[in-house]
Amino acid sequence: MPNGKKKAYTQSNIFTPGLEAFESLRGLWEENPYLASFNDWLTQGQTHAPLHLTSLPFPLSLLPSLPVDPAQCSDWLNRYTAALQNSASKDISTDKRFAANSWKQHEFAHQIAALYSVHEAFLDEFITLLKLPSKQQAQIKFSLDQWLAAIAPSNYLAFNPEALQILQETKGESLSRGLAHLLEDLHKGRISQTNEAVFEVGKNVATTPGAVVYENPFMQLIQYQPLTKTVFKRPLLIVPPCINKFYILDLQAENSFVRYAIEHGHTVFLISWRNPLPDASDQESFGNIEQASWDDYLSNGPLTALEVVSQISKADKINTLGFCVGGTLLSAALAALAAKKQFPAASLTLLTTLLDFSEPGILGVYVDEQQVALREATLSQSGLMPGRELASSFSSLRPNDLIWNYVVNNYLKGQSPPAFDLLYWNSDSTNLPGPMFVQYLRRLYLDNALAKTELESLGVRLDLKKINLPSYVLAAREDHIVPWKSAYASAQHLKPSAKKPANIRFVLAAAGHIAGVINPANKNKRSFWSTATLPDNAEQWFSAAKETPGSWWADWSKWLAAYGGSRIPAPKNLGSPEHKVIEPAPGRYVKVRAV
After folding, report:
1. Would residue 324 show up in a list of annotated catalytic residues for this protein?
2. Active-site option among 84, 206, 238, 324
3. Using 50, 70 and 90 to split pLDDT, how confident is the model at 81?
4. DSSP string spanning 384-439?
C-alpha cells in the first residue's frame, strides 16, 4: 500500500460479493417464522408425540408437538421477541466465531451475527423447558446444536467479513487455496484438522523404543525398553481403546504417558490393536475378523496379553491400566478371570472409563433401540463399522470446534491447519468388526448389562465386585464422552462389598476426555481433585475433595509404586525365548490407516 497505509475496507466493498444473497435472506431473519409456529401451538395445547433423532427438522415441523408449560413458554416467547427487537445492541465479541473486529466494524455482519446469537441462546434455553424423558430431551438438544452450528453466518463466505477481507487482500488467492483444500478433503473423505504431512507414526509420534513381542489377528503386544537401571518386579500392562490408535499415550517424548511410566521404573507392555480393512487380502492374511465378537476381543486382547506378559516377566502379579473402551475391556476380562477364580493382576487403573452406562453422556444420543436395531440388521453377523463414521460421530459432539472451525479456516480463508500431534492422532481412525460393535452398543450402552451383572462373556457371568483390586480411577471434569459422575458411578461397582472397605482412589482431572489424561507432569498445567474416601454420592465426594495444582501423573505414579513389588535389575533383552522379538516398536498394526 502507498505510504505503508492499509486500505480501509468499507461495508460496501467488503460485502459486494454477498450483498445480493444477504438481502434475499435477511427477510427470513426479520420475519422470524418460529414465532408464528409458537403462536399457533400455544392456542392448540397439543400433547407430544414420540420423537426420534432422525425425524427432527427442528424447529419448524417439530414445535407444534412439543410439551411445554404454556405459561413458561409465553414468558420465554416474550423475552425472545424482545431480544430479537433489541439484537442490534447485543455483544457478540464473547463468541470466538465473531470475536474479530471486522464483525463489529460492518453493520451487516454485526446485524446477522447478533440475530443468530439471539436465536441460538433462546432456542437452547427452550430445550430446558421441554417436559420429556431425559433421553429424548438430550436427542433434541443434540439435533438443535448441530443445526445451530451449521447455520452460523461465520460458515458462509457471503456473510463472513474476515474471509471476505482476506479474499480481497489476497486478490482471490485465499479462495483458490480454500477450494484446493476442499478438493483434497473430499478425496480423503474428512475435514483436515492438522497438517498431516508433518507427522509419521514411528518417526515423530509413537517413538518410545521397544519391540513387538507377540501378535495375533487382533493385536500386537509391545514391550518397551527400560530407561532406568532397576525396575519394579511387577510389569505394567496398558490396554488402550480399540476404537482409536494407542499412540495417544505415546505422542512425543515430552507428552508421552508411556515414557513417563518407563522413566519411573515400570516395565511397560502395551496392546496395539489391529485396524481391520475391508479388502479381501486383509481377510486372507488375518482371518475373517469382520465376524469377530466382543468375546473374541476379550480373549485375544487383554486375556492373551495378561498371559504373555506373565510368561515374559515371570512376575507373580501384573499391574494393569485401561483407557476409555480399553478400560471397559480390561475390567470385563478381569471379571471373567475372577469368575474362574483366577487373579493375575496386582492393581487396576482406569482412565476415563465407563463401566456403568446408565448415564453415558452426550454419546447416548446415538444409542437407542431404533438405532441399535438398525446397526444389528446390517452388522450383527459380519462387516466393519468404518472408523471414518466413528470419527465423524465424535467430531459432531463438538461441532463448532471440530467441524465448522476448520470449514471456515481451511475453505473460506484458505489457511492450512497447523501441525498438532493430538489432532493427527484424532484423524487416524480405526475400523471395528460389526458384531463386536453392535454387541458393545446393545449389551453395555443400551442394556447396561455389565453394571447390572447381567453380562455373560467367555462362558461366565461378569461381576465387577469380584475383581477386588486396589484401583485408581481417573475421570475428567469436562469430559463429554465419559461424564465424571458416570465414571464415579462406575468406580462404585468396583467396591467388593458393603462391609469391606474399598481400596479405590478416585481422582478428578481438570479438562476433557483427552486433555485431562494427556497432561504431562513436567508442564505443571491444570489441576486435579482427590480425597481418601469414596462415598456413594459424587457430589459428596467432590465437596470433600482437595484441589492440587498440576498433573495427576505424579499422584498416580506414587500410588502405583506401592503395588510394583521389589526393584530388580532392568532386563537387558526384550521378550523371552518363548516370545521372541518380532519387529521394533511401534509395529506394523498401528501404521495401517482406515480407508
Report:
1. yes
2. 324
3. confident
4. EE-HHHHHHHHHTTSHIIIIIHHIIIIIIS-PPPPP-HHHHHHHSB--EEHHHHHH
